[in-house]
Design brief:
This protein is of the alpha/beta class. Helix content is 43%, strand content 19%. The protein contains 9 helices and 10 strands. It has a 5-stranded mixed beta sheet, sandwiched between helices. A 5-stranded mixed beta sheet has the order 8-7-6-9-10, with helices on both faces. The longest helix has 32 residues.
Length: 332
């Protein structure tokens, strides 16, 4: 079972080859053009995918020492994501599947993030909880099996990744801002400033309030001292980051208690945050959990996780016809 997987949901063009559940090769082409605009420009993203997808696939095949004729299934990200970006990957995957006369496998990008934990050892056993955190989503997922998952909590407004990036923009930090807040926070005091972390009902999240509070906080402090950000940047970043991480882990603790689960994982781009990773590990020790944290290369958008998801769908013969379409608002 040799699967070629393609990921093109946003601004990463990626391809991977998996054989019987084992990753053979994996490549990601990043798009640096978006840094000068402070965010992903959809039109530029789709054009870059068009330029990158063929050489990325060719190099992935070369690294695996395979030819296209060796591929037995084609997998692609169907959604959610940017429509133009998804169309490039979807069209290319459908064309390959038709030309090679092999099955076509459509993958949900969010479910693939969860299944990134199965790429390498040590793998979680089901059921487990996965906190999926990114620029567009914040979810707590109860994983019954690799192909049966349930959202038990999610954001009611903004994603935590957006909360990081918007704050970074206010601070004048480069895009993507989350990593820069994490960088500066390492030298700051997480208790220097307090930001509201009003809990939402059940296991859901809300980050619009803390974003607004951060904006008003900066405006007030800069009015009193125009050099406030420059002088106190590490403490500001550390305090804001700590508030967001506390909000996330509070809900994880509630979810673990309610569902009597002691296997906890994180996934998505924000799972690369050092404070979230270290505090989850500490919490796991305190609670007697078994925690799972993905390698950095599997936190951001990547085709390896698409291939992993496709592996499980292949086992169930869950294939798509050539009439399938990209779905930018694909539900979980």
């Amino acid at each position: 079972m040799i699967i070629l997987a393609i990921e093109s949901s946003c601004d990463e063009t990626s391809a991977a080859i998996m054989e019987n559940g084992v990753l053979r090769s994996h490549l990601i082409a990043t798009q640096a053009i978006h840094t000068q605009y402070g965010g992903v420009v959809p039109e530029f993203a789709s054009r870059a995918h068009e330029e990158n997808i063929v050489p990325v696939v060719q190099e992935t095949l070369k690294q695996a020492n395979l030819q296209l004729s060796d591929i037995q299934a084609i997998a692609f990200t169907q959604g959610p994501g940017l429509l133009g970006a998804l169309l490039v990957g979807t069209s290319y995957a459908k064309s390959l599947a038709w030309a090679l006369k092999v099955p076509l496998i459509a993958v949900n990008h969010l479910k693939a993030h969860v299944l990134a934990h199965f790429i390498e050892d040590e793998k979680p056993t089901c059921p487990f909880l996965c906190l999926t955190v990114s620029g567009g989503h914040t979810q707590i997922v109860l994983v019954h099996t690799p192909t049966k998952m349930q959202i038990i909590g999610q954001t009611q407004d903004d994603a935590v990744g957006e909360a990081f990036d918007k704050a970074a923009k206010l601070l004048g930090l480069p895009y993507p801002g989350g990593r820069w807040i994490d960088h500066h926070a390492k030298n700051g005091n997480p208790n220097a400033y307090q930001f509201p972390t009003t809990p939402q009902p059940d296991l859901n999240f809300s980050f619009s309030g803390i974003k607004t509070s951060f904006l008003y906080f900066l405006q007030k402090q800069i009015k009193a001292n125009p050099q406030f950000v420059e002088v106190n940047l590490p403490d500001i970043c550390a305090s804001y980051q700590q508030a967001l991480v506390s909000m996330l882990l509070h809900k994880v603790k509630l979810a673990a208690k309610q569902h009597h689960i002691k296997q906890i994982a994180i996934a998505g781009g924000v799972s690369a945050n050092s404070a979230l990773r270290s505090q989850l590990l500490d919490l796991g020790v305190a609670k007697g959990w078994k925690t799972f944290i993905p390698k950095f290369e599997y936190c951001t958008d990547n085709a390896a996780m698409i291939a992993m998801s496709a592996h499980f769908k292949y086992l169930e013969q869950d294939f798509e016809g050539l009439s399938t379409e990209a779905a930018p608002r694909l539900s979980f």
